[in-house]
């Protein structure tokens, strides 16, 4: 990402407003004077590396943005960014693969910050029947795969409900991160045509929004998803990795997924 036009003040002001902090709020949290913070934002004063890291922590900046803030201040980035396939990321990749493998025979996948598929276990592949080939060409965006008319959308019985859930989640993520790629993805997916199903929405006392996916033979799988992230990641790539694990929402789905069948090799595209 090109940071030549960015300044410390621009980034601090953007993220302070994004977090709905006043200068007084941020200065108090970071143990600074409001006057000093104002001078840093206006470019009348420079900030030390420690101060920038303290401000970034109070603003809950993503690691990628913290690196940009440091670069704008003339300092080296704090957090490395390595591909998951890199030799020194072996332990992290093996941990992800272990989680995905242990989740069999239920589907599980890992995605990057833009919802592109990184790894998946073999239980995902049977769910992708009839999906258009272009949607399965790397990089595979799993949100596009879910909501596109040539993807899973025609087989999702509660499409309106599931679509609303995914778009709301993406909107929150876009707002929290300020990532223009996520904002563009949100606009693209929001504009996709869809036909609302006639199924009733989840009951008010439901524990979560299920994914109700029709399969061949009239079988409907009802799945609940959970999200896992690396809470103590210091690498940008690892901090931005999300594991999505699906569980059967009812006994019929559990029985269907536990029925032995031949799984193909696990899918994924790790760069």
TrEMBL record:
SUPFAM superfamilies: lambda repressor-like DNA-binding domains. Signal peptide: none annotated. Gene3D superfamilies: 3.30.450.180, lambda repressor-like DNA-binding domains. InterPro entries: Cro/C1-type_HTH, Lambda_DNA-bd_dom_sf, MLTR_LBD. GO terms for molecular function: DNA binding. Residues 12-66 form the HTH cro/C1-type domain. Pfam families: HTH_3, MLTR_LBD. This is Helix-turn-helix protein. It comes from Chelatococcus asaccharovorans.
């Amino acid at each position: 990402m090109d940071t030549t036009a960015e300044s410390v003040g621009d980034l601090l002001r953007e993220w302070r407003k994004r977090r709905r902090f006043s200068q007084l709020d941020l200065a108090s949290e970071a143990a600074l004077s409001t006057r000093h913070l104002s001078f840093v934002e206006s470019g009348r004063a420079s900030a030390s590396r420690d101060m920038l890291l303290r401000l970034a922590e109070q603003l809950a900046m993503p690691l990628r943005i913290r690196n940009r803030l440091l670069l704008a201040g003339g300092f080296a980035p704090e957090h490395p960014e390595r591909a998951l396939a890199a030799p020194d990321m072996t332990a992290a990749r093996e941990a992800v693969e272990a989680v995905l493998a242990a989740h069999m025979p239920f589907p599980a996948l890992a995605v990057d910050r833009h919802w592109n598929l990184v790894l998946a276990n073999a239980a995902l592949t049977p769910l992708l029947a009839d999906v258009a080939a272009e949607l399965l060409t790397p990089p595979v965006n799993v949100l596009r795969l879910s909501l596109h008319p040539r993807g899973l959308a025609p087989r999702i019985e509660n499409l309106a409900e599931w679509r609303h859930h995914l778009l709301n989640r993406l909107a929150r993520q876009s707002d929290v991160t300020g990532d223009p790629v996520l904002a563009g993805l949100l606009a693209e997916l929001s504009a996709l045509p869809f036909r609302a199903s006639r199924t009733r929405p989840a009951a008010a006392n439901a524990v979560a929004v299920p994914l109700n996916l029709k399969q061949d033979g009239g079988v409907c799988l009802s799945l609940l998803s959970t999200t896992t992230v690396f809470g103590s990641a210091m690498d940008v790539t690892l901090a931005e990795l999300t594991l999505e694990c699906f569980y059967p929402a009812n006994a019929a789905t559990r029985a269907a997924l536990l029925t032995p069948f031949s799984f193909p090799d696990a899918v994924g595209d790790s760069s």
